[in-house]
Amino acid sequence: MSVPIYKVKAVHLAIDKSLPPHLHVSAIGEVSSGGWQAVPLAPRVYLKPPQDGIQDLDFGATPPRGSESVIQVILPIVAGAVLALPDWLKGVRVHARTNAVVTLLTDEACLHQVAAINHD
Are 7 and 61 in contact (CB under 8 A)? Predict the structure, then answer.
């Protein structure tokens, strides 16, 4: 069972050169103890494109089982997703329990071209 992580620290975007191109989203966040396991970022599904052109994704992870003994400390966690690249897309917003981070496709510091990736 996936639950929201504590906090999103950074979101990075990359567009591959496949036809059609895909958007690779990677996010770095924090969890509040050891034993968490990342799951892929979960894109929210829309009946019509959002007016702001921002795709929302949820950053969740599987928490440690109740019977596990874990360290109580803030630890990094990483997750990603590969999305279709619709015409309306201007950026992504990754949500955690305590915050959300928006990264725009126009943000050159976070947007990189990557080689085509086999999606089989």
Answer: no
In the chain, beta strands by DSSP E? 3-4, 7-16, 22-31, 37-38, 42-43, 54-58, 60-62, 75-84, 91-95, 100-104, 111-114
Report d(CA 19, CA 44) in Å as an integer: 24
* Per-residue b or e along 111-120, where b marks 16 or more CB atoms closer than 10 Å to that residue's CB: beeeeeeeee
**pLDDT tens digits for range 76-111:** 999 999 999 999 999 999 999 999 999 999 865 445
Are residues 22 and 119 in contact, defined by beta-carbon separation less than 8 angstroms? yes
pTM here? 0.85
* Separation CA 84–CA 107 (nearest Å): 19
